[in-house]
Amino acid sequence: MTATEQKNYEELHSIMTYMVEREISNYVLEETEDLYDEDNDMVLRAYLWSRGEKEHWIVLSPFGQIRMTYKDTPKNLIVQLHNIAVEMIMDAVHTETEGC
Fold it and tell me: Structurally, how many domains does the chain consist of?
């Protein structure tokens, strides 16, 4: 991974983190941690969500792909994250097509 790629991944993660903090109100984002994925040579971000006494880890790629979660992670949290990732992609595509 080049320094430019790492910077780009961190920027994408920052955008995703901002969006999930803004959009997801029924869970609390307690913590994030960046992880290095050796197999794919990229930086992943682990998100720790809580609701009541329960905590849920979800790991996302810079492109919003869910790389890891546990079986007991609530589906509505996964759906919300997925929808935000799709929204990011659609915004990027829309911005790209406007520039043509």
Answer: 1
